[in-house]
From TrEMBL, chains A, B:
It comes from the Bacteria. InterPro entries: ABM_dom, Dimeric_a/b-barrel, Jasmonate_Hydroxylase-like. This is Antibiotic biosynthesis monooxygenase. Keywords: Monooxygenase, Oxidoreductase. One of its GO terms (molecular function) is monooxygenase activity. Residues 15-84 form the ABM domain. Coiled coil: none annotated. It comes from Montanilutibacter psychrotolerans. Gene3D superfamilies: 3.30.70.100.
Length: 115, 115
């Protein structure tokens, strides 16, 4: 698998698109929590994968992929995740947006000149 | 509107999730084309907004939002976009993934400690 990309089954499946701007505070605490949440999410039933990017200005997008809506709700209510999410809203983000979407089709490819 | 965030209507609407890793080549050409494509997309019927992030390692996620599937298809077939997309696949990306999804619900918020 190419680094950074989620290896996903064929659609349909669900995406949770989380956009956020960091406030620049508590980078060590944030990084540790982000890693812990990624590990914990990966243990959830119905977790398919995730992709994440954050630019130098602190604006980031994380998309996590799930088998179905029940898996998303179970992750939302997972106790440690709920506590960390509440902490993040208070201390780590200037602003965030979360969108839940059903992926209907997908394509991908390698770059490079084809001979 | 907070910088970087798309200001969107209430769901349902569609998301095109484009994940990519840049190959590090032709940064000036890529940046100019990315800006031109963002401007051109914003002129399309049914365009709702977009959010984008690329990290220091060249992994990026751009999510563009559209009113319906017809708007996504029209953008896909827009002539200048099609030419630029083919160029990008050959010269700018190591790898890319594109997923089309229907956004079913959305939430957002401001960070900061609530008194």
């Amino acid at each position: 698998m190419d680094e950074g990309f989620a290896s996903l089954p064929s659609p349909p499946y669900y995406a949770v698109i989380f956009s956020s701007r960091r406030n620049g505070e508590d980078e060590a605490g944030y990084a540790a929590a982000a890693q812990r949440m990624a590990e914990l999410a990966a243990q959830q039933r119905g977790y398919l994968g995730a992709e994440s990017s954050r630019d130098a200005g602190g604006f980031g997008i994380t998309v996590s992929y799930w088998q179905d809506e029940a898996a998303i709700l179970a992750w939302k209510h997972q106790a440690e995740h709920a506590v960390t999410r509440a902490h993040g809203r208070q201390y780590w983000y200037e602003h965030y947006e979360l969108r839940v979407a059903k992926v209907e089709r997908a394509y991908g490819g390698k770059g490079g000149v084809r001979k």
